């Protein structure tokens, strides 16, 4: 048997009080695709950062092809044949593909020889691995999937034998993800080793040879993929059994609550992000908004939540919402009965340095129960209320004085959700409800959203996780480039069809159909 | 959850910083050929060792409480108000107008009106920088420091051309009306039969400063407005999500901050000088920044830090008198070192100490 391509022995790493990696040993065989799964905060990224030289381990050693190797920085990692494709690409937007590939790896003071060499190598790689990219295209003109290929090419140009990909499919459409998997398979077949970090079990099952599961900084299991199944992996990740699919009663849609007509939204730079959208949501119904991230979902959520001005017409229960100027702020939206669970709970939904009880009233600080007279806060009542809600939502630790930043992602989300749901909103707009949330809490959060639907609230659900859209929503609208690419009844569609719409392959009649179907 | 004990956070770390600052200051004193222990003894003895010294220490501390609170309130909204100097100067103008032109029958009547005017003028001086920040995004640090210069030029104009009595040489206003005289510690303690030296300028304003500390605490941690200010200070976009208007918070927090800085004039102008001098603030506005930093923007911390700086001011003056080798500039070096260690280099001590306690905490379990 050959020596493992990568072997980690007893790696430990602590950040202050947090033990991110505890005594981790891992062995990755050459010519395999090795998956690493785990919830957010399980320590996957830390481990890979140690391997790539961003952090140094407190203890433990790294062996590459059987040889003990010190990796004090990323240059050393590259020299050892390790390449990394980050979740957020590190490309110069106004450089060509070729220029990006050689950046930092130029042979010479003059660029020309390097460019020439890179061009021929790129042609060769394109043949070998289906990694086709126009070498002269500017990065800013490429799709996300192609940009990712450039990142892979960069690693290969630096003679990487081991390729680490960190959550590579987060920004891809299903079709692009399939293409990526084909590339990874051919890389393996040509002798490379691939480490794939992800939290999507489906991908693990589809592509990997072996899979390691991390939980709370420890490596809990390494198994051959053929010997396992998603249910089993999920249990290893969470440490208990979980339901992957929810029981869902049929929806009982009532009156039309949200009616959006010809809505357009521009971002801070004046670029139009939402383009003339019309949709509606009825009470007791969940409308899912699917799409690859960055196609106008954020702006749609923000205009409904009162964070961004827009143009067009939005009615709630028949009365028109102001989209600019006075009365269009977040406080006015809440008073109309719109609850908003933002996409980014750490940046918007919570104040990380506030205690739980302060966060439980965040946005509702003018409520009668939160004040005593016109000026004072009613601290006792706010604290009682917080404890009550934490019990209802099983937030742990159940400490009203703990700071928001000391809760896990799932528990932070429970605080936001508890706060927004508890006011019995007419409309709930919710963005990425389970992003960065552990599998155990996902189940609970999904159930709460469904219960709210059954209680008669209209829900607009925005998510980049197609699984989530499919399992929760009753109807799906797909956004592409700020426009509605199509609308479907969830029960009558499937992932493949939605995937096409997400990639911008629209029905000819899409905009009108979306407008009329309500 | 791993947590550092509270006493470490509020007492041990500031104390360790202070000790470090004093050690380095000691080296400086040693370097110029004096005995650092003797210097230390003179500072403590001179500022706290006698009723006379204490009277001066508390007088300075009162000034620093107001300017420190001013910076602290603005800090809570993440506004760096370094215009305390100018706002306090203008506060002096407000106080002087009240005390020059109204013939007060009793100081108890004069004090509330002077407080209102001092605060109003101080807040007024913060109004334009606040508005420029809130509406136009002009950086508050730049505008407030500019307004310090405008304020000192304005003082020269007012005193030379408007408020100086005819025939007087020095650029200062005439004396205030007798009814505006605030009782000093000497007079107040005499009411209850305690003897206190006559010359230290500490006066009833010290009590006003203590009340201001309590009110600021209430404002920040017990009112809806304070909640909104803190939320805005921690995260502006989250505050917008919660329906908190950034314009409103910037304006209100800066006006409160300017008002507090203006109140310093009650102590220095009305309580001590009893006339408007050309530089009634003497750098207290800037010391307030250090006081707020060291006090971690908490009213109790501000009070303690203000007293510490009072000690350094009064003790420093004594030191300059007793040890001629230690010049005025050397005192400023020592004060600077305290600011450096307690403010700027705070994390140097904080991080290792916190790690130590966290490790000990996990080990014990």
What does this structure look like?
The complex is a heterodimer of chains A (518) and B (365). By secondary structure, chain A is an alpha/beta fold. Chain A is built from 18 helices and 22 strands. Chain A has a 6-stranded mixed β-sheet, with helices on both faces. A 6-stranded mixed β-sheet of chain A has the order 16-19-20-13-21-22, sandwiched between helices. In chain A, helix 14 (409-421) packs parallel to helix 15. Chain A is globular, with a radius of gyration of 25 Å. Chain B is mainly α and 365 residues long. Chain B has one domain (35-324): ABC transporter involved in vitamin B12 uptake, BtuC (Orthogonal Bundle). Chain B contains 15 helices and no strands. Chains A and B meet through helix 10, helix 11 and strand 18 of A and helix 9, helix 10 and helix 15 of B.
Question: Keywords, please?
Answer:
heterodimer; A: 518 residues; alpha/beta; Rossmann fold; 2 domains; six-stranded mixed sheet; 18 helices; 22 strands; globular; disordered C terminus; B: 365 residues; mainly alpha; ABC transporter involved in vitamin B12 uptake, BtuC
List the helices and strands and how they pair.
The complex is a heterodimer of chains A (518) and B (365).
Chain A: E1 6-15, E2 18-28, E3 33-38, H1 44-51, E4 59-64, E5 67-69, H2 74-79, E6 82-85, H3 97-102, H4 111-129, H5 144-157, E7 162-166, H6 174-189, E8 193-198, H7 201-207, E9 210-215, E10 218-224, H8 230-238, E11 256-266, E12 272-282, E13 286-290, H9 297-305, E14 311-316, E15 319-320, H10 330-336, E16 338-341, H11 345-349, H12 356-360, E17 371-372, E18 376-377, H13 379-392, H14 409-421, E19 427-431, H15 439-454, E20 458-462, H16 466-472, E21 475-480, E22 483-489, H17 495-502, H18 510-516
Parallel strand pairs in A: 3-8, 3-9, 6-7, 7-8, 13-20, 13-21, 16-19, 19-20
Antiparallel strand pairs in A: 1-2, 1-4, 4-5, 9-10, 11-12, 11-14, 14-15, 17-18, 21-22
Chain B: H1 6-31, H2 36-48, H3 51-76, H4 84-101, H5 107-136, H6 140-163, H7 185-191, H8 205-222, H9 224-234, H10 236-241, H11 246-273, H12 284-294, H13 299-322, H14 328-344, H15 346-364
Helix pairs in contact in B: 1-2, 1-14, 1-15, 2-3, 2-13, 3-8, 3-11, 3-12, 3-13, 4-5, 4-6, 4-11, 4-12, 5-6, 5-11, 8-9, 8-13, 9-11, 12-13, 12-14, 13-14
